[in-house]
Amino acid sequence: MKISKRVEKVAPSGIRVFFDLVLGMKDVISLGVGEPDFITPWGIREKAIYSLEQGYTSYTSNKGMIELREEISSFLKKRFGLEYDPEEEILITVGSSEAFDLAARTLTNSGDKILVPEPSYVSYFPLFYLAGGSPHYLKTTIDNGFKLTPQQIERACDKNTKVLVINYPANPTGTSYTRKELLEFAKIAKKRNLIVVSDEVYDELTYDFNHTPFATLPGMKQKTVYLNGFSKSYAMTGFRVGYACGPKNIINHMNKIHQYTMLCASIIAQMAAIEALKNGSKSVLQMKKEYQRRREYIVGELNRIGLRVHKPEGAFYVFPSIRNTGYSSMDFALNLIKKKKVAVVPGTAFGPSGEGYIRMAYASSLDNLKEAILRISEFLKR
Amino acid sequence: MDEILEILESDARLSAEEIAKMVRKPVAKVKSLIKQYEKDGVILKYKTIINKELLHEEKNGVRALIEVKVTPQKDVGFDYLAERIYRFPEVASCYLLSGSYDLLLIIEGKDIHTVSSFVAEKLAPMENVRGTVTHFLLKKYKEDHQILKRKERTKRPAISF
Lengths: 382, 161
Prior knowledge:
The structure holds two protein chains of two kinds. Chain A folds into two domains: 5-40 and 282-381, Aspartate Aminotransferase, domain 1 (Alpha-Beta Complex); 42-279, 3-Layer(aba) Sandwich (Aspartate Aminotransferase, domain 2). Chain A is built from 13 helices and twelve strands. Chain A has helices spanning 5-9, 15-23, 42-53, 66-80, 95-107, 124-130, 150-156, 179-191, 248-261, 267-279, 281-304, 329-340, 366-381, and strands spanning 29-30, 90-93, 113-118, 134-139, 161-167, 195-199, 224-229, 242-245, 317-318, 342-343, 345-346, 358-361. In chain A, helix 4 (66-80) packs parallel to helix 10 (267-279). By secondary structure, chain B is of the alpha+beta class. Chain B folds into two domains: 3-40, no CATH class; 57-138, 2-Layer Sandwich (Alpha-Beta Plaits). The radius of gyration of chain B is 21 Å and the shape is extended. Chain B starts with a helix and ends in a 14-residue tail after the last strand. The interface between A and B is medium-sized, with 30 and 17 residues.
């Protein structure tokens, strides 16, 4: 049987084997997770239970419940001064992952060049590739804190370049950008007529400065597809609910794919999301505070045990260099799990230039972090 | 509240060194701040929360909530009488409340008899105590933000993107 050429070409994530190994092991200290270690705040869970009891078990409108879109609209306005029309410019999706896929498929014509930072979240490159585009990696390194530079973006632009993907705070590096830095990107987007797909799911976990949504920059609202969700801020990964905001035209086309594939996000998740926006801000702040302490702790400790690390501006990841250990990323992760039962993700999962790094999530209790650091330092001494 | 206090309130076993790493302050500074808090009585003591509900011991004793109506006194209000009451070692907690009664006490004793004799012999006969209502505690579900069950754990897989 012949499989689609494009699908066949998407690498079956060599990392899968490593994942299976980790998932088969017991008593592992895991710094390998891409989700919060908090359980969804009770108020949100209770609302989901209540919704179920009240018989909210149906489809919703394709774009999502209007009550949720209105809540998102007023939340964004209050929080960032960002205005989106709940009727036409907001689409509720099954996690922001779906929103990203919809954006990729809606924006891409065959041969379009798509600029994707690297290392970056695992789905960006393949989804644009599957959509028929030619994704192009923009490499970043620890030397400049894994930040894209305006020059680098400009240099990569040619007549086929259509989309710039950005993600900040970033998975896997935790890197984020200040408003000043983003303004430089906006200039290029304007000059080169780029659409910016901006994944900002970790926005609430920004520690050193205020988060600036890309769409709030002058002239950028019309050129940005803004992606966000509830998974990270409200510890709601399992609910699978996110959203895309953007120009009416783009959102309407994204909704066409959405209605034929997902139809709508789960109504229970949407009800829970409404509750999160209405009453969840206190929990968000508590979790953020806790992550921030763990960040200080783990960055300090990694430095102490001799792993070079860029202090991340946000999210709950650190991406230390393991170059001086002599291991490749995969070997480091494999040996660490086998010998010391600590799980981390090899940097190469996030693009070839992730070689020489590992991703550690500090969304784990302080006791776990302490124990993990101890075991890693023993591992390094061997 | 100072971040150091917040951290200690959630985990008193953390060392000054560890706290210093979390708040990015020199260890010496953290140590001296904690000393000062101890000296000022802001930090009263460090203790362990034991979930006795899980011990299933007969000797856990009994607890009772007691509503106390009192007559406040000139110049000292409720404070004088409250102090005379809370100094008894049987009194685990003592609060002054608004509403239909004045003091709420939590009393600990080894059995119902001990608690009732405390009420009958010590508390009720006190001058200016106008009446008491005793509620024996049957089961504790949550105390000081702590749910008295084994901790809820995330069911997340050990690795994901």
